[in-house]
TrEMBL record:
The lineage of its organism: Bacteria, Bacillati, Mycoplasmatota, Mollicutes, Entomoplasmatales. Mn(2+) binds at residues 151, 207, 222. Keywords: Antiviral defense, DNA-binding, Endonuclease, Hydrolase, Magnesium, Manganese, Metal-binding, Nuclease. It comes from Spiroplasma clarkii. It holds the Pfam family Cas_Cas1. This is CRISPR-associated endonuclease Cas1.
Length: 312
């Protein structure tokens, strides 16, 4: 399985040489080489990187997804393969046959796991017992399709406990910039894996945006989101000391893909866990058995990295 994430900064050029991806650092006059089958993702962080359509073709041919960032370093584009499954029509039919009651059951499980992981994170951060009790009550009262809106209520308590009562999601500040970056990295990894299994990202479980190509990605990313908040809360002082998202911060947020989570009492990297989650949803579509759906449990971070970066 591919495992490296390549972060491209400065004035770099991407090309092919002897079947390898060659990254030329023009400023340092240095060349780096990477085997395509080692790569999971390439992140382009500037407007000056040059690459050919041949490179793009080889990346998608090897199921390496490419994330493009804007001037504020926020991911705003995704390039990935769409020729990954030998029976795409069968998968599409399975997705559109999904009944409303099945979606309601699935969304209940997703929301419960997201709240459970939020509670885990709050416990790691030493949050107040009062807030933990409220979150536990939300967890225990999730209804089908989250009809009582427990996810939103839990998110309100969660964000205020972590970032203060004045925090507003989607405001233009450094905390939201870090959250947006981390969430997008995770959702992009999920999108790539969904396509690998022939699943159509726009056919969601709960999210149904008619102009949203990533409804299913946003559904399945929910249980993973609290780990981004764990990182942001742990690094809050360093973040607030900067007006924009620092290079090292972006590296560490990308590296969340290599952190550990638990599924079925076994430890997996987030990248591997995403594979398990998506495969389990693929299996659910064929079997309609809720026990087939696997979702991650967030645990304490470890010191680990599978990042290659080109800034010198």
């Amino acid at each position: 399985m591919s495992w490296k994430t390549l972060l491209i900064t400065n004035y770099d050029k991407l090309s092919l040489k002897n079947g390898l991806l060659m990254v030329t650092n023009l400023k340092a006059k240095k060349e780096l080489y990477f085997a395509m089958n080692d790569l999971n993702c390439v992140v382009l962080e500037n407007n000056y990187t040059t690459l050919t359509t041949q490179v793009l073709s080889k990346l998608v041919e090897n199921n390496v997804y490419l994330i493009i960032c804007d001037d504020k370093y926020e991911p705003n584009g995704l390039i990935m393969s769409f020729h990954n499954h030998w029976k795409p029509l069968t998968i599409f039919e399975n997705q559109i046959k999904l009944q409303n009651y099945q979606k309601e059951q699935l969304w209940k499980l997703v929301v419960e796991k997201k709240i459970e992981n939020s509670i885990n994170v709050m416990g790691m951060l030493g949050c107040s017992q009062r807030s933990l009790t409220m979150m536990s009550n939300f967890f225990n009262t999730v209804k089908l399709n989250d009809a009582s809106n427990r996810e939103a209520l839990a998110a309100k308590v969660f964000f205020r406990e972590l970032y203060g009562s004045s925090f507003l999601r989607f405001s233009e500040d450094i905390i939201n910039a870090a959250l947006n970056y981390g969430y997008t990295i995770l959702a992009s990894a999920i999108s790539r894996t969904l396509v690998k299994y022939g699943l159509h990202c726009f056919l969601g479980i709960f999210h149904k945006g008619k102009t949203n190509n990533w409804n299913l990605s946003y559904d399945l990313v929910e249980p993973f989101r609290p780990m981004v908040d764990l990182w942001v809360s742990t690094n809050i002082e360093s973040l607030l000391a900067n007006e924009t998202l620092h290079y090292q911060h972006r590296l560490e947020l990308i590296n969340l893909l290599n952190q550990s989570v638990v599924i079925d009492e076994k430890i997996h990297t987030v990248t591997n866990a995403i594979e398990i989650v998506v495969k389990s949803y693929y299996t659910y579509l064929k079997t309609a058995s809720l026990t087939k759906l696997k979702l991650p449990t967030i645990v304490q971070f470890e010191e680990r990295s599978s990042l290659d970066e080109t800034e010198e």
